[in-house]
Amino acid sequence: xxxxxxxVFVCLGNICRSPLAEGAFRHHVERAGLSHAFEIDxxxxxxxxxxxxxxxxxVQEAHRQGVDISRQRSRKLVxxxxxxxxxxxxxxxxxxxxxQTLAKGAVRAEIGLMLAEGxxxxxxxxxxxxxxxxxxxxxxxxVDVATAALLERIRTERGL
Length: 160
Hints:
By secondary structure, this protein is of the alpha/beta class.
């Protein structure tokens, strides 16, 4: 058996954007019948919410889309993740810089921006934390498109 493809989605606190991205990607992978081929996770560059579930508004938005993220728990990204994961997708440039600082040189992971995958006119997934429910809906739409594109790219690259 070949090694599983490991993907982690990263935002600041790992309670809003990255849990939604993890849920969307997992949903696309399951629909494609490829769950056996992937290990999917999310993390934050800060440990503010370590051990906590996603923001209730993220859980609610994912639920509206038919995806359950309620069992996810926040964790902080650590340097060893960058050698264990194949793909590390940051929600914005600030978190991408934090990831690259954590890397301190060459790492195994491909580090990129989430919205680079979806050919979006936006470059960053905005943080909906201080806004209303509509921000979580907008984030879902962005990460849903981007994670579908990411899966297609990985399928092409890996011959899945």
